[in-house]
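Section 3.1: Structural characterization of target chains.
Under the original work plan, the team committed to producing a structural model for every single-chain target entering the pipeline before any wet-lab resources were allocated. The record below documents one such target. The sequence was received from the expression subgroup and is listed exactly as submitted; it comprises 443 residues.
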Amino acid sequence: MSRVAPRKEAHTNMNKHLTLEERIVIETLLKQRESFKSIGRELGKDPTTISKEVRNHIQFSQTGCYGKSFNDCFFRKDCGLRNLCGNQNCNRICSFCNSHRCASFCNEYRQEICKRLSKPPYVCNGCELRRSCRVEKRTYSASHAQKEYEIVRSESRQGIQLTEEEALRLDTLISPLLQKGQSLHHICAGHLDTIMVDQRSLYNYVGAGIFSARNLDMPRVVRMGKRKKKKDGFKVDKKCRIGRTYTDFLGFIQDHPDVTIVEMDSVEGQVGGKVLLTLHFRVPQFMLAFIRDANTSQSVIDIFNWLWHVLGPDTFCKLFQVVLGDNGSEFSNPSALEMSPQGESRARIFYCDPRAPYQKPAVENNHGLLRRVIPKGTSLDAFNQEDITLMMNHINSYKRANLGDKSPYEVFAALYGEEALRRMGAELIPADEITLRPYLLQK
């Protein structure tokens, strides 16, 4: 495998913007299937810089492969439908049509997203399956990234360039959605054809007071206060952790790299009141939440047994192959979670290291969205499961940048089907109706 020659004096450019030459190196090494860490070492940059560069400049293309047109329907391989568009003169199977329109006419269409794109390097550069792939492609191009960078740099130096009419149009569209608790990225993803303004510029306009919405309407923009340290409490009996430590977890997923991983945690309201159990699927970033009267081990077992019943053994075992929790006392009976009431093996339970919430970052990060609706310190006693399910439907319908501007609901449906979602009570909320504010649950 050929390598790009190491750059001299790489240590001197750690804080400088990437140049076109460096972007070409990134594109070249991506094609050689090098990791972000390896590319960063080559350029003298932090791997997170390379990761952000690639994700910020992804190009999306709906192209097929040699001899086959683009088609990202999950059922395309077994599809034999014809004449969905009404053209009686066409005898071709719709899934092979070059017009790419069968998704618009077919009620059975379900979008397929390549699983590889949910993890580094997030793009198709260097993928050995690209020649036979018919789904949406995501690529990193050095020239395209440089042009986008120059546009953003130019706009940042020009100041605000808006007419009064354009500012009013954007304000009418964006401010009501910001005040619902939506982010600018989510709004831009849902209105690509109507906003027509760079996302970074919109942040500047809000900060400059051009719109009626303010920075206070964007929780991620406002800095959070320093977290208070939790007092030591009752932890899981060490005997429960034998064979289930975080080291055991890493060894298990190394031997079984394709298993589904669910991160499990509890969210407290006021001390002594109701609590939530959250179950977060890492890959689709889809999260379930269940309200419990008390933070007991039996309440968690009851929820697992309910899911086992409504999903059925096959679907449950497919979704909950590995579950990673912390050392809370509510997870102190792993055997009852791993085994069904009939004694069937249904999951593998592992524990994070003590005081290491960073080992299950996905669920911790998603709790930030939950806290927009139920602020920390709010009692959960007034809520029932219908309220919690409504909140999670709004959160799971919220579009994410690292999912290609898709929502967790859409990605989960593409991976596992909508039937499982229906059984768990999940519904897709229209983009403009999503509300991440406390008044969502006000009665």
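Residues 374 and 438 are 6 Å apart (CA to CA).
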